[in-house]
Amino acid sequence: MRLRRRFLRAEKWGLQAFADPKLCAHEANVFWHAKALKQVVRLNAKRPTEGDEARVRRLADFKAHRQAVINADGVPLVMMKRSGICVPLEISGLSNLTAPFVPVIELHDLGDLSAQTELLKRLQRFTEADFRAIQKPFASDERLHHALIALDESLNGKTYRQIAIAIFGEKKVTEEWHGHSQFLRDRTRRLVAKGTELMKGSYRDLLG
From CA 137, how far away is CA 140, in angstroms rounded? Predict the structure, then answer.
């Protein structure tokens, strides 16, 4: 998608533009703004010259699902996703997304060098035929699902016990809630805390 202008209201929500409200969540494309993402690979696309053959890349070289948006300044942001791993790639100097280029990586903060290095390793793995996903810290879909349920129930004024019933079922809660172990109650509190943390901005960590 190419944007002809900026959408300032959408940018306040960390988006390049709002998704089509007529589409359901599974069908709508979400175009995040680079400033909203915790980690982004930023590179300059240098035009290949004689002697650059070994370093030339194309976006098609990356074996991942690619979703691109070109902002009003003509700078593409490409979201690459595969096997639960997402790498945002902001490319300057690439007007044609199918053109070959020599990537020149930008590093802006040496204090976060280890995180940037890991992100570059993930990007490099997308070029490998035998790519294997590496487990992410919050890769458990079930835990994420439970945290979101806990958040919704908490915002609706439910007690921890009611939240636990919504997640684990009434039978399990009846049997364990007042037992010697505090595990179920502590787990419910942690899920509410995680859901609240996601709502306050840490959901962006899941984007890359």
Answer: 8
